[in-house]
Amino acid sequence: MVDPKIEQVVQFERTRPDVRGDAHPKKLLRAIEEDGDNLAKLSDQHIFSSDQFDRGTLLQLFRLAAKYEANPGRFSTSLNGQILISAFYEPSTRTRLSFESAWHRLGGDIMSITDRSTTGIAKGESLGDVAEMFNNYGDCVVLRDSQEGSVKEMMNALRIPIINAGNGIDEHPTQALADLYTIFKWRPDLVTDNPGEPLNLCLVGLPSKMRTVRSLLKLLCDFPEVFASVTIVNDFSREEMFAPGQLEQLEESGLKIHTAGDLDKVLPEADVVYINAISWEDNSFKEYGKVFHIDAKSPLKENAIVLHPLARGEELCTSLDGTSHNWYFSQARGAVFLRMALLTCLVQRAERVLDVI
Amino acid sequence: MVDPKIEQVVQFERTRPDVRGDAHPKKLLRAIEEDGDNLAKLSDQHIFSSDQFDRGTLLQLFRLAAKYEANPGRFSTSLNGQILISAFYEPSTRTRLSFESAWHRLGGDIMSITDRSTTGIAKGESLGDVAEMFNNYGDCVVLRDSQEGSVKEMMNALRIPIINAGNGIDEHPTQALADLYTIFKWRPDLVTDNPGEPLNLCLVGLPSKMRTVRSLLKLLCDFPEVFASVTIVNDFSREEMFAPGQLEQLEESGLKIHTAGDLDKVLPEADVVYINAISWEDNSFKEYGKVFHIDAKSPLKENAIVLHPLARGEELCTSLDGTSHNWYFSQARGAVFLRMALLTCLVQRAERVLDVI
Amino acid sequence: MVDPKIEQVVQFERTRPDVRGDAHPKKLLRAIEEDGDNLAKLSDQHIFSSDQFDRGTLLQLFRLAAKYEANPGRFSTSLNGQILISAFYEPSTRTRLSFESAWHRLGGDIMSITDRSTTGIAKGESLGDVAEMFNNYGDCVVLRDSQEGSVKEMMNALRIPIINAGNGIDEHPTQALADLYTIFKWRPDLVTDNPGEPLNLCLVGLPSKMRTVRSLLKLLCDFPEVFASVTIVNDFSREEMFAPGQLEQLEESGLKIHTAGDLDKVLPEADVVYINAISWEDNSFKEYGKVFHIDAKSPLKENAIVLHPLARGEELCTSLDGTSHNWYFSQARGAVFLRMALLTCLVQRAERVLDVI
User: Fold this and answer.
1) Residues C193-226: pLDDT tens digits?
2) Chain C residues closer than 8 Å to A112 by CB
3) Rounded distance between C-alpha atoms, residue C275 and residue C267, angstroms
4) CB-facing half-sphere around the CA of A206: CA atoms within 13 A
5) Are C265 and C299 in contact, with CB atoms under 8 Å apart?
6) Greatest CA span in chain C, whole angstroms?
7) Which of A55, B27, B159, C64 is deepest in the core (most CB within 10 A)?
8) Of the partner residues A16, A97, A310, the one whose CB lies closest to the CB of residue B137
């Protein structure tokens, strides 16, 4: 007989009441009407920057992501015969597995490169030649490189689509897409003709240096009416915390941008709290804002949701994990479906999953 | 024309008379009656320790493994749509490829992590958060980590099954399953109502430090009547060679445990000789028992079989490879089928392969 | 609305007028009659050296490669259920991805080993035991190892086929196959009963040290009538530039081998220019012939084609990329189809793709 003590250790539950961010993809599906035309342009584009998306394309991407999330196993052959080149020259497991999982879920094949030193680049091969090689071997590329200019250099020679999965301090567009997707899954009314109250967004991070923040702020520009206010919290001054032109772009879109240094003063009004502490600089990561910290005792609004691109450190305490504020795990789960939606469009397979195209 | 000398070099045989452990999976299939109920509990369990198996579950696992080994190509779609996260933070090719081959043979997809430094753990991410990430990206995890506590820490947060593929000096349960499976393929009568002579097992290794030995000894506890004696051979004293509680657990099960320091005195009575020289300590491997060695001249019983978890060094001489004692290559081959059986049950796909469930 | 400047950056073309080596696989398909018998011997051979191919087998391999290149998506299930072990112990992305892409395109599964230190070899495991392990886990092996003798040592114990993907300075047979395939796609008349003018081949490289050159020269021996002359250009003397026996093997086949030190004197007569600057010695790469260089201003014949095994450095200038001399990108593209053809035969799946066998 098996010792009950060991049984207790090895038994696990596959489903628990999901207090961590009830996803509501079906509500979002109903809130947005399908319009395949808005996805058509993605079939000949690289995904480089949040700047390249407009409102219509974003809504259709979110709708398709919600369709995938509501029907996880249904589209398992959509990418049959397609090969993804998964090139992560900067250490990452989270983003790499998120993309690879998305591609596998749709039935595609994958070739991984996880060590820069094994590539011809070590022999002095140009990125243009690496791109030409990729043209012959795969159908889509995902690239993370600490060297900011690599993805753009490859885009010039590529004849298959490439996704920027994080280039230095510059951008990480698919993370931002996943973040905004999560917000709309929580409040689908905001994309309908009958929206409820707009949101106060509190963003703890450094816009000049954190690529997830930079990419997200750009997307917010497409939905200025959704955000009553955007309050950026860090320990830099308003003059120093933005990259050149960044604040101007945000304000031109109609967003109300506030800045603050005291998090606990901002939290009581925040509907969405986004927090991040890490930026990728000089081939390594750097931490900012050590003084900022959220936990179960923070003065959060009762219905406030918390987002974090993960990996997290002490800035986001585990005491929040079991609360209804926790939408950061849902954010990570939804990111796979968002990437499924994007990848489907990039390799021209959208017609296999849309009802009308 | 092609130079006959080069033809001689490049020609190879796919099948040779299999002197290295005639597998007999079909005989084992006939010896055990199918009983799917005994596999049901595996569908909500992590695989952490040999302690969690009872006799009934073991026999059904061995039966299913034998079914796979007897019909290698038949079940090639059983794991369609399932994603394995293959995480090997400690150097390994043998065990990783064994698991990945098993998963591929059943039609599943794989994402590999072979470098600890590429994971968020390098950024200080907790194992609980890594587990939550795995929940979103895959359907099953296999983990080998020199840090003994990692797998248990992840088990707390995982909602998909994880297999401990070797955690420091602690356990390696699937290797033990493969070892016992091999013994029963050789002597299927021992699991019937009409067993022949029980076995004298000679085990060359260090129970306190070698995880393969620790896991195997636990499994023997479920079949005390199969083993007339278990003689453990190494250069430690009986007081020093066991971990706390280890010898007691073995003797409580009814096994007769002897210890010895002179291998050549034990071999003439041994039916099964299991030998291993390596343990994994402190993130590297350590060798024990340099004085112990088996070769074609060793005083083995005529029908004795030799097992080794591999990789081997000088303790198991290649002069035995071409003899009928060599069941260590069969052991490695059978390990793939054993893992196929286990993985099938863990991801709740057993109903696709069992006749009655 | 999206800023047109960013749209310009992210938009790309999937197809451009292909000035870089119009592939003509269909012309080659028509030029060679199918004869499956000539491929039969490959089903029980390792691929070790260019020496093991004869003319008949080469023509059928090229025909099958052309069939794949002319119908890229048609045979996507030919390797269903087959597992490739992709072992690259020497840094490589180009060759590894070329093989893995080929295997994926035919519907097979892959297990990759890219770090020698993770294998049992680090524990002192013999290559014979590694081979025995591969026998149990996969159906085909591709190996690149800077240690020249590894592939032969494994061939002795393997019961599944292995392809030498580059062993030190010795050989790289599949690269040579891809090179000759490219030449015949350009001039398919040369393998018919009614060939046009034979070719002057100019080969910039070091036959004694460059494995791609060594393997290619051997294949030329099977088609002496195709090459009016072979002129090898480097900065070594005729006595020093060949390995022992190398020049004799070439001359015995009927090839006219010239040597020269002044590239610009040879180019005006060359129909095919092959250039390479790198050899793999002592676990690292070494450059030769820094003085030799081709660019758009070189005195090339109007219809001359340029080949390079890639990766390239300054010896092959990017100014040639947009010219009709550029057949090196077509060479890389064709290499995938050539490998698809070879792999199909090795794992005994040719009957799934040939019309008559």
Assistant:
1) 999 999 999 999 999 999 999 999 999 999 999 9
2) 112
3) 12
4) 21
5) no
6) 70
7) C64
8) A97
The tokens describing B312, both together, are 């081997």
Strand A140-145 relative to strand B140-145, pairing? unpaired
Q: Are B280 and B166 in contact (CB under 8 A)?
A: yes
Chain A CB contacts of C4 below 8 Å: none
**Chains contacting chain C through 3 or more C-beta pairs under 8 A:** A, B
What's the pLDDT at B114?
A: 85
Please, which contacts does C188-191 make with residues 24 or more away whose CB atoms are closer than 8 Å? C188/C24, C188/C27, C188/C28, C188/C30, C188/C31, C188/C32, C189/C31, C190/C223, C190/C226, C191/C28, C191/C31, C191/C32, C191/C59, C191/C62, C191/C226
Contact list, A136 vs chain C (CB under 8 Å) = 98, 101, 329, 332-333, 336
Q: A178 is written with which tokens?
A: 């996943």
Q: Which of A1, A3, A20, A97 to mutate: most B Cβ within 10 Å?
A: A97
> What CA–CA distances, in Å, run from B146 to B88, B150, B216, B312?
9, 8, 19, 20
Q: Are strands C272-275 and C305-307 parallel, antiparallel or unpaired?
A: parallel
- The two beta strands, C83-88 and C140-145, are parallel
* Per-residue H/E/C for A262-279: CHHHHHHHCCEEEECCEE
Cβ-nearest to A137 among C3, C97, C112: C97
Q: How many CB atoms lie within 10 A of CB A16?
A: 9
Nearest CB to B52: which of A6, A16, A278?
A6
Pairwise CA distance, residues B36 & A70, whole Å: 32
Segment A50-91, tens digit of pLDDT: 999 999 999 999 999 999 999 988 999 999 999 999 999 887
pTM (predicted TM-score): 0.95
CA separation, residue B195 to residues B53, B199, B226 (Å): 22, 11, 8
The ipTM, to two decimals, is 0.94
pLDDT in tens, C166-184: 999 999 999 999 999 999 9
Interface test with chain C among B16, B95, B97, B182, by most C beta carbons within 10 Å:
B97
User: DSSP code of B318?
Assistant: G
Mark yes or no for CB contact A44/C100 under 8 Å.
Answer: no
What's the pLDDT tens digit per position in A131-149?
999 999 999 999 999 889 9
Q: CA C158, CA C46: separation in Å to the nearest integer?
A: 9
Residues of A in contact with B221 (CB under 8 A): none
CB C159, CB C141: distance < 8 Å: no
Give the residue on A whose Cα is nearest the Cα of C114.
A118
First CA to last CA across chain A, in angstroms? 60
- The number of residues in chain C equals 357
DSSP bridge pairs for A88: A144
Closest CA relative to residue B288, chosen from B219, B357, B203, B350: B203
- Residue B243 exposed, middle or buried by CB count within 10 Å (0-12, 13-18, 19+): middle
Please state, in angstroms and rounded to a whole number, the distance separating the CA atoms of residues C316 and C307.
9
Contacts of A311 in chain B (CB under 8 A): 120, 123-125, 129
Which chain B residue has the Cα nearest residue C45? B11
Exposure class string for B125-136: b at 16+ Cβ within 10 A, else e: bbbebbbbbbbb
DSSP structural state of residue B73: T
What CA–CA distance (Å, rounded) separates B312 from B255?
28
H helix runs in chain C, sequence order: 4-10, 25-31, 37-40, 55-70, 94-105, 127-137, 150-157, 173-186, 211-220, 246-252, 263-266, 328-346
Determine the angle formed by the axes of helices C328-346 and A127-137, rounding to 10 degrees: 40
CB pairs under 8 A between A and B: 107
Chains meeting A at 3+ CB pairs closer than 8 A? B, C
